[in-house]
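If you are new to this repository, start here. Below is one unmodified record pulled from the training split, so you can see the exact layout before writing a loader.
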Amino acid sequence: MKALSITNKTCSLDYFLPCLNGPVKVRIDSDTRKSINQSHKIFLDLLSNGQKIYGVTTGFGDLSSISINENDQKQLQLNLLRSHATGVGKSFDLGITRIIMVLKLINWSKGVSGVRLKLVQLLKELLNHDILPVIPRQGSVGASGDLAPLAHMALPLIGEGLVNFQERIMPAMLAMKEVGLDPIILEPKEGLSLINGTQVSTAIAIKACLEAENILKVADLSGALSVEASLSSRSVFKSDIHKLKNHPGQRIVASNIWNLLNNSEIVSSHKNCDRMQDPYSFRCIPQVHGICRENYKCVKNIVENEANSVSDNPIIMPNGKVLNSGHFHAESIAQAMDNLAIAIAEIGSIAERRIHYFMKGISDNVPSFIASNPGLESGFMTAHVTAASLVSENKVLTHPASVDSISTSGGQEDFVSMAPWAARKCLRVIDNVRNILSIELLASTTINELFHTPLKMANAFIPVLKLMKKHVHYSKTDRPLHSDIKVISELIKSKQILNSIKNYDII
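And here is the target side for that same chain:
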């Protein structure tokens, strides 16, 4: 079980990777505990001095003009959690839920939220016992915080709501009793601090970024295999050509493909052919994949910045001032996820064009649709249709969510980000592209294995084929390809495909 330390230090996206892979153990360092305690003391001093504080001595949103007397301030926080737990739809997967909880702890670690260390410790203990709130994925517009889903995250802290525990869904109170934890009675501001924040949007975005990075690298491998299988030219990937274009991503991709194709007998076999230029989907892989990589780099920076930021409101400053802000607004995540969805969709679109190229027959040795007996057999005809359907689906999913604001809370929250939807649909795009690349990998390796023999493929591709042959039965006769596509997609997602070429330079 991986241990995560909550500190004031900046963490990279890789810090969250263990959360996606299984249970984690979290510890909060002494300096962080100290800053949380100091912030809570400052908050108590402000409250005892009669300071008017939004969401503590007032109502919320459009009801913020209503004053709350001291005797009702704890009930206000309890009512907030209960009234805002309005999510619908399927719940988030356990990995995203863990990241949401870790992000909330990181937010509190900055020492400006005014909550008790006792609350922080209880959330940490739920995470350490892998008692994970059931959080419906629909219901947030990504402004004033991810209110509804974070309310569902918070309910177990007060002994309410449902949790995933030991592969069971059960009432939170039962799970807490099993491990000896008691629910907490919320103090002023604590309910608000629990549901204010961009943690849900950011958690989904973190998963999207981690999966997108893998997709971008596998796309270079898949593209290079298709260059080889299609008898396309390696020369267009020479570094001398790409030095003339001042885009670092393009240069990296060109270098990757050039290196991957080294020592390929298939590529060498057509050096002197009369084909002058290859289709754009082969020749322009560096130009397309490269800018997608650069967009990813920008998105990753935005998401990392948000993960390490305060998104609470109001903020309790160390100098004793209470500052109201809009840090809960997730526009940065919304635009970042819209951009990433477009970039990854382009990876799928150009891969589909390469699959399509194989369908018309690329040489006397490789017949139409990669079918050994076209007409009697259909080969990859409908596998390509599947890829085409996923590309078209992505065209709809890449419509930007961030341009689609809608006013809520009686007009008080009049411009919202739609970040959770931007991030969720980005994950769907990534899933679709993973399947497109699976089809491309299956098509290109089938051609190389069954139709280009006895010519040898590039050395870098041999371990890829060896891995795939453990799971895929290559045959010249028609067979259902569904299970092959599915297993290759899993090999991509688990990084087994990428790890199989770790001895070859792919950046």
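Two things worth knowing about this chain: The chain has two domains: 2-197, 204-404+412-499. Strands lie at 2-6, 24-28, 88-91, 132-133, 136-138, 162-165, 168-171, 315-316, 322-323.
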